[in-house]
Amino acid sequence: MMRPRHFFQAVAVAAASMGLVACESRRPAASELPRSAEPLHEAMQQLTGTMVYDIFSPPQASRVYSYASIAAYEAIRQGDTAWRSLAGQVRDMPAVPAPDRTRNYSFALAGVRAFLTVSHQLTFSRERMDSVRTAITSRYADALPDDVYERSVAYGDTVARFVLAWAGTDRFKESRGLPKYSITRDPGRWRPTPPAYMDAVEPNWGTLIPFVMDSASQFRPAPAIPFDTLKGTPFHTQALEVYEKGKTLTEEERLIASFWDCNPYTMNVQGHTMFATKKISPGGHWMGIAGQASRQAKASLVESADVYARTALALADGFIAAWEEKFRSGVIRPETVINNYVDEQWTPLLQTPPFPEYPSGHSVISTSAAEVLTSIFGANFAFTDSVEVPFGLPVRSFPSFEAAANEAAISRLYGGIHYRQAIEEGQKQGRRVGQHVVARLVTKPGAAVAAR
Prior knowledge:
Blueprint: H1 4-24, H2 38-54, H3 58-76, H4 107-122, H5 126-138, H6 146-167, H7 172-175, H8 234-247, H9 251-259, E1 266-270, E2 273-277, H10 282-296, H11 301-329, H12 334-341, H13 361-377, E3 383-385, E4 396-398, H14 401-414, H15 420-440
Antiparallel strand pairs: 1-2, 3-4
């Protein structure tokens, strides 16, 4: 019998390998590398695969995506400084070291190298990421003179070191030493859920310094409906909706719930055996959508780097905002309420994630990412989402990013893991976060700078 960790690794490696196959078919020739965005797209896919392998929680994954994407963008934009730096726009971020303008560089190589070096330092499987970094970086060797190649790699590492030093000021390290979530006797407060009854994930994530928001509480949602088990009360009514919906799901609704599940660590129980399977995180799903949209729009290298950076920042701040409220209000999950007060045999379609219910994190971050992507590609950008194919799910097509975000949000009701208020208020919170990111971050040449 395969032990849980080994089973998970097998699933993750298979998924990463499937992603690599897709990359291989688009690999540019050596002569095209200095202009191509494909190495950056592949680097992003490799980072996602590594975080799947390493079992990164959704909030932690969003942090890694942000710093790696910022490093890539800041190095790549040196080749066209009409693109504005994020320095001075993102939280306390100073200007990155400038290259020696009297020398030649491949800023494409520098950007990919910076991305992979940051990724290498912020993930656990460093040997795995080191091999990826070497493999992707070395492809530029045949396309560039030796001195340009070496200088570009060195500059990418310089930018990476700068970004990593700045990353050390976001209170992440301090949050590691803060108290864990305390379970109380309050009947309306969150408590661990079956089958694994895992501890709360990242209870102090709301203490991290946001990238673009002024504070974690800047866009708090409306107060959660007060806990009440009396029939006819607002809380009991919304819990009953989850229960009844779970019994009448259509096949399409089941597929939607599975497509947007994005649970990084699902425990499966078969008799006395428990084993784990692993999926992409919600943020990883949206970073995948950002890459697909960039490819579909034939975005240039710097345009693609910009898409990744701003999408990642919307996701990261969305997670900080959602987690601040989750552990402030500590709302109990539908599974616990229904089992205790309605039907002790009921189980949700999806496995309940190990953290408080309100608001729906997926609703927050999907809406915030959709706001940024819509601002870049337009309100009617139709696309086909194949991000979940490596995990055994079919593609889904959407007429817009907003439509995809709306589906991601309602999927949480279908899955039985969120009340309607958490979904709707989560969307409102995510929209405010995303719109704030769009207004505050101006990178494209010629774009008007918003008043601050």
